[in-house]
Protein 1
Amino acid sequence: MMETERLELAQLSYDDCEFVRDLVNEPSFIRYIGDRGVRSLDDAYEYLRKGPLDSYEKHGYGLYRVCHRCDTTPLGICGLVKRDEFPHPDLGFAFLERHWGRGYAYESSLATLDHARNKLALKHIIAVADGDNEASIKLLRKLGFQFEDMVRMSGESKEICRYALDLPE
Ligand SMILES: CC(C)(COP(=O)(O)OP(=O)(O)OC[C@H]1O[C@@H](n2cnc3c(N)ncnc32)[C@H](O)[C@@H]1OP(=O)(O)O)[C@@H](O)C(=O)NCCC(=O)NCCS
């Protein structure tokens, strides 16, 4: 678990099926991350099982649920994803649209990067974003990420931007 001034980041569990179903069906999530085909609570269970929960087991990190410290209502997710096609883990974040613009993504990303450096001893983090995803790119720049190159993810036709950040020892 990670704590910031306002927020708490904790591992997702099967109790989060409803929240996850709502989050991955937000229009912004579908537009910029993709349609994960999660429509029912059973679909959300499978998404959690094959995605974040499997990642905690395999890599010791994953995407975390972000809540207020004093409230268990989830606001969004933030954390690290290890994709087979990239050698380094990448920073991921998505928040329910009604919670945007309050700095939650920035604050939880800072905590994730601190955890990556100090607990996981990672030295290099990447991030990928659609070139049209202004909110995400602005946030990555604010966190210190630099544009690296354009990449095409497996199964996708469009190239997206890869950003990178070195974590000082
Ligand atoms: C990306 C996302 C998490 C940003 O959430 P957020 O709540 O706006 O983030 P924050 O409040 O922490 O804002 C961080 C910075 O991003 C910038 N920003 C936020 N929304 C923006 C927008 N629509 N256009 C341009 N910049 C924007 C702001 O500059 C802000 O910095 P500031 O506080 O100095 O103004 C949110 O838009 C989201 O969930 N999008 C859908 C999922 C997604 O695209 N994830 C990323 C995949 S690569």
Protein 2
Amino acid sequence: MDFVWSDSFARRVARFQGSAVREMFHWAQLPGIISLSAGSPAPELFPVEAFRQAANQVLDEDPVGALQYGITEGYPPLREWIAEHLRGKGISVTADEVMITTGSQQAMDLLVRVLFDAGDLVVVERPTFIATLQALDTCEVEYLSAPMDGDGLIVDELARRLDGRPKLICAQPNFQNPSGVSLSLPRRRQLAQLAAERHIAIVEDDPYSELIYEGDALPSIKSFDQAGLSIYLGSFSKILMPGIRVGWAAGPTAVLEKMAVVKQSNDLHTDGFMQRVVNLLVRNGQLPAHIDRIRKVYRERRDVMLHAIADHFPAEARYTQPRGGLFVWVELPAEVDCGRFVRPAVERLVLFTPGAGFHRDGTGQNTMRLNFSNVEPDRIQEGVKRLGAVVKEQLTKT
Ligand SMILES: Cc1ncc(COP(=O)(O)O)c(C=O)c1O
């Protein structure tokens, strides 16, 4: 008889949920399909030539450093660059307070492993990034899902609902994934203050702040933190390329040191070759122009998507108007279940991500996330048109 693996699974495995975004990937291979599902950057914007040159330079100048085992906390010159970059944003950290991670997703995973015992309480925005929820699920946490509006997490409402003592507030202040919404300036201050009053740590997950298409950048939550209670996560995935898997955590050494111990058993250190390549790429003088180009391309795609939704979605659909990032969030009437639209959408050769997976309080069935970064404008137009037809058709059946 075959071995039944599931008989040996840990109890906590019952909590694990696959990513709704990842589930879409196999459909994305269908010929002719338009995927508005994944949050992938536009590959035509990857700085491939600069990457090639940097890679060759690293191999010419520092092959042993690049290919030998390295320091868990990361390559010191890159940590220096990140600290300087953050100081430019009003976040006062030294290189010792920066740890390089294998994507910022790993930083979240390390942090929650350090903080949570089974049954501990965490505050998450409703909705929030699926991989954050997946990392938290592995720690068997209890969720307090904090509602949001057009100005982000409603801090007054969170303060009213705080009973028990959460260990951590997970916040994405800029162009949140999935909603596209940003936390307003007064609420950033207010959230830092609330956390200080109630002795709760904050993780500020911020992979999108450079992808700003209009208006002024707002100061980070961490810049209001006087108590050393916040940890800031950043990433090169959206400004360079996601496949290189280089991100970082910046925060007090007391927590980074423990995260480093978890990282030792996880992957020991982030790819030393990639860290050196990234270090050259961010220092070659081309980064500001590169980011400007990304902003220009994505701004146009966002505008095309918003116009197409206005033209093709039913009047009942409400949707966000993100000032940056990669996503538009659509909300349909409460009784609608967008999960049921996936099949008919695939039949019409368009993909979206149903919103329920971004929630842990059983809500969100009537929502969907649409990505605009990874599709050419005419395909966005056509994809939204196809999806709008599916939504209208399904609404008549609801
Ligand atoms: C909110 C948020 N945090 C973190 C990440 C992960 O970024 P990385 O590729 O650096 O792991 C993403 C990527 O989509 C994201 O949307």
